[in-house]
Design brief:
- The complex is a heterodimer.
- Helices cover 36% and strands 19% of the residues of chain A.
- The radius of gyration of chain A is 13 Å and the shape is globular.
- Chain A has 4 helices and 5 strands, in the order βαβαβαββα.
- Chain A has one domain: Response regulator (Rossmann fold).
- Chain A is an alpha/beta fold.
- In chain A, strands 2-1-3-4-5 form a 5-stranded parallel sheet, with helices on both faces.
- The two termini of chain B are 31 Å apart.
- Chain B is built from 13 helices and 7 strands.
- The longest helix of chain B is centred in the middle third of the chain and has 94 residues.
- In chain B, a hairpin with a 3-residue loop joins β4 and β5.
- The relative contact order of chain B is 0.06.
- Helix content of chain B is 63%, strand content 9%.
- Chain B is of the alpha+beta class.
- Chain B has 3 domains: 215 residues, no CATH class; 64 residues; 159 residues, Heat Shock Protein 90 (2-Layer Sandwich).
- The chains are: A alpha/beta, B alpha+beta.
Chain lengths: 125, 472
């Protein structure tokens, strides 16, 4: 079963993502900031990371930089979910992720996005 | 800083020293010419050999001075004025000495060239300070008097200028005194006049220099003031942009969360919902969508105005921008039963611009065209001239009433024949973006080429070829 780590400080958005993705048969782990996200990524070795940018304690930029430096997890694909102002089109960003996606993301688009990276999910019954 | 090390006084001094050296070359020629003509033209007989020896010495001495001067010209230390003045003083002193010796071998004070001392003292007056000039004048008169006295009292010999002056006149006291007095009168008067004039000039020069330094300093202060003001404004601007980003994010974040929660229910993740419940949730969802667009658009305006766009500018092939902008929209148009045509040149013109912003404009115009067209089609056309690119977005839709056309690109202006959709800011943002690119945007309705629908056009300058810049 594919594991997805969702790093977002917005509890409502996290809850929606968790609900939607679990319904699709994925295992969802939640983290509310970059620091927690790093710990979880190292511990759980997820198959995909969905990352918010603006967060307390450790933001998405810092997370991505730390993440890319850690060879044990750096190969995990990271999708950055951003609101308008944080987009790399808006300003040059000092780090790399696998893909940028703009918020808001409709549940079915979220599912499509995740399936792009994880094809071997088990359909919920 | 004022031009460092530039002292006009010094420059003048060096120049004058050079003039003296040039003069001295000529003087040697002059002495030889006078000597020869005196001997052979006027048949004045005297021994010319010492004169020629002195001439040789003069040449050697002048060469030495020439080299000294060249060294002074390269000297940039503050002491250089002092050194140049010392050099000038020593040169005049030497010249006086040589003149005296030369006179001794050519008839002493019976030689009319005895008045050449005036030239030396005048030169000293121009070149040196007042005190030095008077010092040298006194030395000159002293040397002449000493020469006359020594010859008069037979301490040294006297060379007779035979057949020019009576051979005993150098022993006539009244003659000797009258020559010396005349010489003193001439030299002191000339020194007085010359130092007065030179002093006046020097004063004015100094005043001008001071004035120039003062003006330069004022300019510099003004420049500093302006640049600190510019920096202050830059800081203010960037902190305002930061504030805008935070405000945008914080306004959007809860709306995004609300939207996601509604979608969660709408898409059935929270269990099946009835059609009526679905409808009400969709109404709410649509309002949140438009509020999100309004926030983005509203906060877009200051970002464009604050020049953020300028920082994003790169060289862009416009064909690519158009193709990216139409992605997805062609599908929407075709779903609506509309034709969708993109007409671009084979070789893409290049502009200097923000890829994201230009796509925003084109997407916005195409979206409008699709929204207001029920049948027919939409054409996106790119053409270019020598210096400009032109993009037309042509539709066969309901068009824009003539009275709306002038205000179409104003904030929150909506056409009188359309239902409100979007924030009402799209076209005003498009106008600002195109203006920031140095271009112009306008609308024509009905399209003058077909008599129906509308045609939105914007033009902007092409990127200047680097090779052209090099030529300029």
């Amino acid at each position: 079963m594919s594991k997805i780590l969702v790093i977002d400080d917005d509890v409502d958005l996290s809850a929606v993502a968790k609900g939607v993705l679990e319904r699709e048969g994925f295992t969802v782990i939640l983290a509310s900031n970059g620091e927690e996200g790093l710990t979880q990524a190292r511990k759980e070795k997820p198959d995909l990371i969905i990352l918010d940018i603006t967060m307390p304690v450790m933001d998405g930029y810092t997370f991505a930089n730390e993440f890319n430096r850690d060879m044990t997890i750096a190969n995990i694909p990271v999708v950055a979910l951003t609101s308008y102002v944080e987009s790399p089109l808006d300003q040059p960003v000092p780090f790399q992720v696998t893909e940028w996606v703009k918020k808001p993301l409709k549940p079915k688009d979220l599912v499509l996005l995740v399936k792009k990276y994880l094809k071997n999910s088990r359909k919920a019954t | 800083m004022p031009v460092a090390g530039y002292i006009p006084e010094l420059k003048a001094l060096k120049l004058r020293l050079n003039v003296f050296i040039k003069m001295r070359w000529l003087v040697v020629l002059g002495i030889i010419a006078v000597t020869l003509s005196a001997k052979y033209l006027f048949n004045i007989s005297f021994n010319a050999l010492p004169v020629f020896i002195i001439c040789l010495f003069l040449l050697a001495y002048n060469l030495l001075m020439y080299l000294w001067n060249r060294r002074l010209a390269k000297d940039d230390t503050e002491l250089v004025i002092k050194r140049a003045q010392t050099s000038g003083y020593i040169q005049v002193l030497f010249d006086l000495g040589i003149l005296t010796i030369l006179l001794h071998f050519t008839g002493g004070i019976t030689n009319p060239f005895v008045f050449v001392y005036v030239i030396h003292t005048t030169a000293a007056s121009i070149l040196l300070t007042k005190r030095r000039a008077y010092e040298l004048t006194t030395i000159a008169v002293g040397m002449a008097a000493l020469l006359a006295f020594l010859e008069y009292s037979s301490v040294i010999g006297h060379v007779n200028l035979i057949s020019f002056v009576p051979s005993t006149i150098y022993r006539q006291l009244n003659y000797v005194i009258s020559i010396i007095v005349t010489l003193a009168l001439l030299t002191y008067t000339s020194t007085y006049i010359t130092t007065a004039v030179a002093g006046e000039l020097r004063q004015q020069h100094l005043k001008m220099d001071l004035l120039r330094d003062k003006l330069l300093k004022e300019d510099e202060l003004e420049l500093q003031r302006i640049s600190s003001e510019v920096n202050r404004l830059k800081d203010e601007r960037s902190s305002f942009v930061r504030l805008l980003n935070v405000v945008t994010h914080d306004l959007q974040a809860p709306l995004v969360a609300v939207q996601s929660c509604i979608s969660y229910v709408l898409d059935g993740y929270a269990g099946d919902i009835a059609e009526e419940q679905k409808n009400w949730l969709q109404r709410g969802s649509r309002r949140i969508d438009s509020l999100l667009i309004l926030i983005t658009d509203l906060l877009d305006i200051p970002r464009i105005e604050l020049g953020q766009l300028k920082q994003e500018m790169t060289e862009l092939p416009l064909n690519e921008i158009i193709i990216h902008s139409t992605e997805g929209l062609d599908i929407i148009a075709k779903k609506k039963g509309l034709q969708f045509m993109v007409d671009i040149p084979r070789k893409s013109p290049v502009v200097n611009g923000s890829s994201r912003r230009l796509q925003q404009v084109i997407t916005n115009l195409i979206n409008n065209a699709i929204n207001y067209t029920k049948e027919g089609g939409i054409t996106v056309k790119l053409t270019e001239t020598e210096s400009e690119v032109r993009i037309d977005i042509i539709d066969t839709g309901i068009g824009v009433p003539a009275k709306d056309l002038p205000k179409l690109f104003d904030e929150f202006y909506r056409g009188s024949n359309v239902e409100s959709k979007g924030s009402g800011l799209g076209l005003s943002i498009a106008r600002r973006i195109i203006a920031a690119h140095g271009g112009k945007i306008w609308a024509e309705s009905p399209n003058p080429d077909t008599g129906q629908g509308s045609k939105f056009t914007f033009i902007m300058p092409k990127k200047i070829d680097n090779s052209q810049i090099n030529i300029i």
